Amino acid sequence: MSATATRVAAVDCGTNSIRLLIHDTATGEVTRENTIVRLGQGVDESGRFHPDAIERTRKALAAYVDTMEREGVSKVRMVATSATRDASNREDFLAMTCDLLGRIQPGAQAEVITGEEEAALSFAGATADIDPARGPFCVIDLGGGSTEFVMDGHAVSTRMGCVRVTERFMCTDPPTEEETSAARAYIRERIAEAAAEVPFAQAQTFVGCAGTFTTIAAIAQHLPTYDPERIHMLEISFERMREVTTDLRLKTAAQRLEDPVMHPGRADVIGSGSTVVEELMVAFADAAGASSFIISEKDILDGIVAKLVAQ
């Protein structure tokens, strides 16, 4: 690291995973990590974090802080999204993050951001590497507890994510037709809420980010291992997406795990995530005549880093 370079870190803690991005202002990305912790375990039903979920998240964050120290990070921002917005005992979680992040930057702790800020940060990251001529863009960040939709000047966060839909509707392995039908009705309602605020018909390019989209893209290419470089900026047709999502939805979690790109912590919820993607494709085809997604490996973490560097 040069004498003038600065290293910053972004941490995103969602319903299903906690992720880290370390960026060097001189050389760019240093490391990017993802750990499935299922912080949102049972939050949709109980309204509280489970102690085991907080402990899983603490261990993962402690490992990230160790990495930050080794890499000489001087500034960190951690955001917490859907599950933390919903949890009544969020203060226990925030205190834990303060203890750990204070090792890097005194006073730092996780920030509970709004769905609208989450959407704006995701948009900045997801569109960073796309030719502006392909705009207007509509970015869809499909998470564990929520899904954000964002276009320039428009952003909405919906209570629809792969963990939430699994726990609420698609809890059989594999889900039954009745469960899937109920989930689809709920998903369509959430998409309609988004469509009332975000002008899908004006979008030229639809961009999907986060783990459901990137995993589907990996499977669609029959990758032998998860390769972000093969996934980032892949344009994939709705037809091919639907082949993959249908197959995933009908399989058991154990069968999904037979694919080498499937993360063990995603296998039990990607059937629900696939159902969300299927309904998104119907909505975007109807509204804008869309027939493909661009898949982005960049997302909210990259948006956070861009703001840290600008500061």
From TrEMBL:
It comes from the Bacteria. Pfam families: Ppx-GppA. Residues 29-304 form the Ppx/GppA phosphatase N-terminal domain. GO terms for molecular function: pyrophosphatase activity. Gene3D superfamilies: 3.30.420.40, Exopolyphosphatase. Domain 2. CDD domains: ASKHA_NBD_MtPPX2-like. InterPro entries: ATPase_NBD, GppA/Ppx_hydrolase, Ppx_GppA_N. PANTHER family: EXOPOLYPHOSPHATASE, EXOPOLYPHOSPHATASE 2. This is Exopolyphosphatase. It comes from Corynebacterium riegelii.
